[in-house]
Specification:
Length: 137
Amino acid sequence: MAYRVKAYTLREESTESGTRYFISFKDGQGKSHELEVSEQFFMEFRQMERRNRNLLQWDERHREFSEVWDETLNRRALKLPKSIEEQMIEAERAELLCKAVDGLPEIQRRRFLLYYEYEFNFYQIAAMEHCTASAIQ
């Protein structure tokens, strides 16, 4: 895993009087600076580094490294595309169904379309047709 080069370094220095905390960095002209900071500021910087490192690692783990081809996308798809044969069979079935529906008497065709095409239930169709739901079934 390649990480970006940091623009700063953190350093702790233990002395007899306690621990001192420093941050070193280079300014825009390339001049090096070192600042002594409080423990709280230093610890916050460390936490920020950890969060950034964890984010980079998460991104690295979830990135796709292989090239994605149509075949792999199709395998990953929730609903696989139909083959040409399946599409042809479906088209023939649809054509036969249309011919069969066209051959129905007007009342049955209307009720069939209301139920299957417009998704009304038997009770709604019965109310429209002024009859009982069992007559629609």
